[in-house]
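During the first year of the project, the team set up a workflow for recording each protein of interest as an amino acid sequence followed immediately by a discrete structure-token representation. This format lets reviewers and collaborators read both layers of information side by side without switching files. As required by the reporting guidelines, we include two representative entries from the current panel. The first entry is reproduced here exactly as it appears in our internal archive.
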Amino acid sequence: MKPSLQTLAMSMAAPGTSENPRNTEASVLVRRDGSYLLAFTEFYGGGRDDSGANIVGLISRDGGESWCDRRILQENVGGCNVMSASLLRLRDGAVLLSYIRKDSRSACTLFSRRSEDDGETFGESVQINDWTAYMGCVNDSFLQLRSGRVFCPVYFTNGACWSGAEHFVARMCYSDDGGRSWQAARTDVDCPMRGTMEPVLLERDDGSLLMLMRTQTGNVYEALSMDEGETWGEAVPNSLPSQEAPIAVRRVPGGRTAVAVWNAAYDSDARSHGGRRSPLHIAVSQDGMQSVGTHFALEQSDSTTFSYPSIAFDGAKLLLTYYVGEDHALVDGGSTAMLGLRFRALDLKALTGETAAFPLETS
């Protein structure tokens, strides 16, 4: 079968407005009643990474064509904001919500909250990291292994962010009790230049764990763990060109195919981030991201930027979100343009030849 890109639904779930100029970093949960819960960062008072923000939820009951029932999932309890949501359904049926509490350009803390009622309510916040630094976990990056272990991929710097002194490394945090407690892996992962940023994980058929990382080098970097994330090998560049922007990757639940979404058009002459975060590409892999097939341009524009994707599955549908904004990409944590959140549903079988099992999200 030749893969093809077929859009089933598309909507602007959260357009940028004068009151909320940036709506970004989202994650989608397919609920048991068939509705979608969308969690995202809703900024107010500006569009910088350290502007005020809450984690906000929206519901769609028509496959993502429209969104309603806005509510705050996590209010701003930080010195700056709370941001960068992940939603993950666990195999025991519970749902985890994670977020960053950003207090300053040198101090952040990561938290998870557990829901026992399909995302209607969330319990008390549980701290994930046990060290102090400027840190983050990119949106929609939580992963549960086949063993049940849950991962929060963390990156951090001991220097203040946007100071010129920052250098990021990745440190995996994991939970063996469904997010009720967390601990850190024994080894960190480093990359050249500004370091390792916004790591994501993929569990392979052989049980190895693949980490993919944003860098400034013009390539996605990768590292492997053979012991469920306790220790990690050296990071090396892989075959994927990339701007300085995150990559999202998910395996089709119950299938063999991995789907990746990222900004692949690296430009070494660009004034920032290796390019203006357009086009946004999508590709599939049948071998655990050792190789990928055709890079489809999911979005492409001379005047618009697209990034920070999320990936979810609903049977024969592939559910994506990503930000859309005029002008340039986020530079030094800020943007002069409004950034809105786009939802897009693709025909999963047309792209991969597979359909997704529910409710498992095991790899």
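The second entry, processed by the same pipeline in the following quarter, appears below.
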Amino acid sequence: MTLVSPRYQNPYAGFPLDNSSQGRMMRPSLSGLSVGLRPPVAPVASPASLYTFLPNRQNAPYRFAVMGDAGTGDLNQALVARQMSFWHQVMPYNSVMVLGDNVYKNGEPALFPDRITRPYQDLQRQGVRFFPVLGNHDVKKGFGDWQLAYWGVPPFYNFKLGPPGFEVEFWAIDTNLLIPQSSLEGQANPVLARQKAACQMAWLAQSLAQSTASMKVVYGHHPMASRGANTKPGRAFEQQILASQLGPLFSRYGVDLYMSGHEHHYEKPALVSGTYHLVSGAGGKLDSAKRGGPEGNGLLKQLHFMLFEITPQGLTYRTISSDGKFIDCGKIPRRGMLGGQLYTYA
């Protein structure tokens, strides 16, 4: 495994992984990668007109799904997972970004097969790769490293998707490290927690600065700009902590999109200080009518996942409910594009 930082010299080496009939989640391919996780990109010899949000299997390498807060192990998770499998047949995609809280309630390793593997085994068998981050429930009782080993990923990493010239680079970060009180380790050993956080921030700043990708997307569990967080004690403070650390980096290095979960609903991408922010935290958990603020102004309380496609003009997305309906759609343009140039083909 090629790790993202020399300070993380394979902390999971030798960890016993389950290879029994219980199964494990499909690991991202790590062979031959130099920085973070960089899935192989298929060459494209076609004009931009092939990039359409249509049932086109040639576009599978340039589509990805997004889900968050899914690991309930109940009917809600199963319904969303079933829609993900269905839409994979209609509009094939090769990757899934997982936004944390993958194993409720305390990240117990005994629940990994039921919460991580079984719901998505149909996608796994078809070679779809999963790129997760940890949520606060995943690290609540100190099992975060166990889950990372099960997924087969480092604590934080980066990779690229998309055709040459239109590549999008992704950074998967552990926001728990930036909010130490959210994890058992942060409470028990704050000095070590601060060292890990500093390591992640140094890596993020360096890799963002060195990136030549045409679009930059960062994702983590905790949101920086959620409209629904204000109704929950402590959530607004978490956002302030994250914004103070990540906001300057996003502005300095031109991050186009930040994706998060944590809030158990959907919030349409909104432009904040030059970066779009979206919340997709209802892949299994769902806020009650009173919790998370009222619906409206881009906030929807429906179980869902998101399906994106990389186009020459940016990102096109559809938000799909657990009963298969489009509940939202939109486009996130590449920086510097004029309104008249947007989405000629998408």
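For the second entry, the following points were noted during internal review. The domain at 56-341 is CATH 3.60.21.10 (Purple Acid Phosphatase; chain A, domain 2). The longest strand covers residues 304-311. Both points are flagged for discussion at the upcoming steering committee meeting.
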